[in-house]
Amino acid sequence: ASTALVPAPVDIANKLRYLFGRNGDYTVTDAYQGTAWSVREKLIDSFNKTHDHWKEEDPKFIYYLSAEFLMGRSLINTVYNLGLDGEYAEALNQLGYEMEKVADAERDAALGNGGLGRLAACFLDSMATLDLPGWGYGIRYKYGMFKQALKNGYQVELPDIWLTKGNPWELRRDDVKFEVGFGGRVERRKQGNKEVTMWTPSEKVIAQAYDNPIPGFNTPTTSNLRLWDAVPLTEFDLSAFNAGDYDRAMLERERAEGISAVLYPNDSTPEGKELRLKQQYFFVSASLQDVLSRFKAVHGNNFDLLPEKACFQLNDTHPTIAVAELMRLLLDVEGLDWDQVWTISTKCLNYTNHTVMPEALEKWPVKVMAKMLPRHMEIIEVINEGWTKWLAGHLKDLAPEERAKRIAAMSIIHENPWNKDEMLVNMAYLAVVGSSAVNGVAAIHSNIVKDEIFNDFYQIFPSKFQNKTNGVTPRRWLAWCNPELASLITDTLGTSEWINDTEKLAGLRAYASDKAFQVKWAAVKKAKKAKLAELIKKVHGDEVNQDALFDIQIKRIHEYKRQYLNVLSIIWRYKQLKKMSPEERKKAVARVCVIGGKAASAYDMAKRIIRLVTAVGDVINKDPDTKEYLRLYFLPDYNVSLAETIIPAAELSQHISTAGTEASGTSNMKFQMNGCLIIGTWDGANIEIAEETGIDNVFVFGVRAEEINQLRKERKNFKTDPRWDELMRDIEGGMFGDKDYFKPLVDSVNNMKVGNDWFLLANDFASYLKAQEDVDACYKDQSEWLRRSIMYTAGSGKFSSDRTIREYAEDIWHVKPCRPTV
Ligand code: 26Y
What we know:
Layout (H helix, E strand, L loop, with lengths): L7 H13 L7 H30 L3 E5 L3 E4 L2 H7 L3 H10 L4 H5 L5 E3 L3 H15 L4 E6 L7 E5 L2 E5 L12 E12 L2 E7 L2 E7 L2 E13 L6 E11 L5 H5 L3 H14 L14 H26 L6 H4 E6 L6 H12 L4 H11 E4 L10 E3 H7 L1 H21 L5 H11 L2 E4 L2 E8 H7 L3 E4 L2 H11 L1 H6 L4 E3 L6 H7 L2 H11 L21 H26 L8 E6 L8 H17 L2 H6 L3 E6 L7 H17 L9 E5 L5 H10 L2 E4 L11 H7 L3 E5 L4 H8 L5 E3 L6 H7 L7 H11 L6 H10 L12 H20 L1 H13 L6 H13 L9
Parallel strand pairs: 1-4, 1-12, 4-11, 12-13, 13-17, 17-18, 19-20, 19-22, 20-21, 22-23, 23-24
Antiparallel strand pairs: 2-3, 5-6, 7-10, 8-9, 10-11, 14-16, 15-16
Helix pairs in contact: 1-2, 1-4, 6-33, 9-11, 11-12, 11-14, 13-14, 21-25, 21-32, 22-24, 24-30
The structure holds ligand 26Y.
């Protein structure tokens, strides 16, 4: 029976009584657990209804294959998306709790590193909201992204133990499991007059499905994120235990569980670890087997129909082994021929690139691949043979050397440029050759994809290449994380339709200069700033000036994102304040600067940058001359939930990557939606944000992407700004202590070292300081600042992931909405 008839407060108490053995005297965590387990049932009702409908209609599905889904918390999102917020807020009130506090007891599901993982989560929200038949597929990591703590100002990493209290947002599917094999050998046998290929893996594990229902907003649709857990085969094969081989069985358990144990905490700095390839194959194989088994249940062996029923989006190169796995399943298991399979497979697959950095494009040694996935290595070799042969024909008009050079440059299997004895499988090339569409994630990035990274391929298949500018869900990133601003917007526009149609936010432009409206707008920002101030107080014990400009940079710590440049400008500001008289200081714009983000555990330079932030903060925040005017805090353990508190409070956000390096950025869109001004380079989605907001409303600085190559060549002759030189001497001289530890940081941007300052901090330094002066001048004119702030939100319509997903659905997936009837 449905729980709909049980009043929510009773249902919450029932859940606590029967699932947790609690009888009154609840803690906040209890209140969360009871609420979550109660909401879960409504979610499952909606999930079942949707899937019954989809089963009946049999529409084409999109499967989003991603090694990462950075979901964050679910309670608030679920009750709001299902329209149960009033009912549960009221229920909790009756029990003596406040929804917001209760929601705070939930642990983040942090199964992702950063932008790429969070994008996947936003996409799921939009797919469900748009009623698109679609699932996410990934790995149910037992440990997600590490928790970051600070010890004496240095990053330390702690395990993310997120499942210990159970997970009300998932459903284990005991009837959905698949075998996934590794290693072993490949043999050919005659079967009648046909030769068949048999792969006998030396190792097998079971992929066990867990479903995570994804509620759409303002629709009965609830879709699904299916995550795979790796468990040993012996669990299901009692004879192994009966044979008395207990030790071996236990070892096997450990080995199997190792596959889904932990998310690799690297963002864009790949480690060629075999376990990572194992993870990739594990989830890809299970997902493809799952899709094919459902397809066969309805359409039998009519595989030519597959591209009309299923398509897969490869979220970066991480799931690219799907090209070979789909081929293998159709060739070896289903017995189709190569040509037919190649046609089907390329029709079903599409690839999104998220990075321009060549070192972040995955390449696996042929040796590793041949050992772990011998049949796949064979298939890739055959694909590459066919591909290079086809290329030779296609390029027949080129001079022989030129042709050979071009073919070598485009070969999926090629030499390791740093080690001539090693051959590599280039996963990005495999993805480009093996799929129908290839896209970048912002206009500038898609151009770099076409003109630089895959230019040879673009020349041959121009129509394969597309742009799909990223977006973020306006539900989580505006409506639910900033309900105060959301009600002001709804009251002003006279409708809440903007939550489904963000283009309606443009209606706010008419109020941008309206004084009365500006006052209300400012009051919301002030309330959100108070919340962030509370958090700073909790973490650092300091009270901050809530009238100061809240200046934020939150993202993974990376040299190309240039948090270091931000710190340099903060030090410069500090030095200027020190020189001023107390009277002069009173005229300065006060700032509270916040930096947050995790450094990959092996990324030494990024860890030094974190230490520089904390060391500079220690000096600045204590200085009685300046502490009224300038603060710098590092907020540890930046994650989705922290972002939901920080972003609504931000007045200025920094997106200052070297032009041409940040594929898109997505937090820039979240800040924009929340009326936060941007200081940024002409990079990634900043460009499109500036176009939508009005370029004069954005603090743009720095060199352009087209200039970068030349400037890098000339960097050793670059005459650095005297202020820059002074700051380098300060850090080197120990102004912030730890001189030896900071020395490599200073060296990394030193123009006397050929090839150094790769990210051109020194080149952008002067124009950055100038842009910061413009920020101060603008902030002094609060009415102008507020006008711009309103223009940001008003201009953010384009950056809803609903728009992005609609474009994917129309231009790449060709899937159509399919809404269950209520
Ligand atoms: C190979 C492995 C170590 C690896 C793991 C994670 C490589 C890359 C990543 C993550 C990349 C990532 O998050 N990229 C970001 O994707 C966002 C969504 O498209 C972009 O907005 C952002 O600019 C880009 O850096």
